[in-house]
Amino acid sequence: MAEAQWFVVHTYSGYENNVKTSIEKTIVNRKLQDVILDVRVPMQDTLETKNGERVLKKKMMFPGYVLVHMVMNDNTWYVVRNTRGVTGFVGPGSKPVPLTEQEIVSLGLLESETEVIPEFVEGEEVIIQSGNWRNSVGEIKAVNNSKRKVMVEVTMFNRATLTEFSFDEVILKK
Predict the structure, then answer these.
(1) CB neighbours of 88 closer than 8 A, spacing ≥ 6?
(2) CATH class of 5-117
(3) Phi/psi-derived region of residue 131, left when phi > 0, alpha when psi is between -120 and 50, beta in every other case
(4) Phi, psi values for residue 163, rounded to 5°
(5) Is the pTM of this model over 0.70?
């Protein structure tokens, strides 16, 4: 028997959870637990500000996509491909391409822990936690979520300096 791999399935927008539920029901009904091992809609926790309060919210990492851990054969391909809401597998033509080991690790599919990504907003005040600016207070001037960095304006001796910090190096001032 072939080894199970992770495949990316493209879905209609907004149908990700419906596709996940439908595939899981089909697995049980057709007794496919040995060949379709897991179905996931990748989510990540983010902190959002609502009415001045920080709220932890789950957001879809890849809207329009579902990840399926399965042994690829004609039967499993047919089951997933013909699930309502699925437009196809990601890959050239009709040939699905499995995720590489590096992609699996970067998506966190090997670990069940989810990472909380704080949401910083321009204009908020933060306290720097490391380096020469430790314990200094500054104002966020720019946020780069993809690099997980913020540009903070810190003032010392009546002179403002713009400095880049990673999300881990700053905390919000309360």
Answers:
(1) 9, 10, 81, 94
(2) alpha beta
(3) left
(4) -135, 145
(5) no
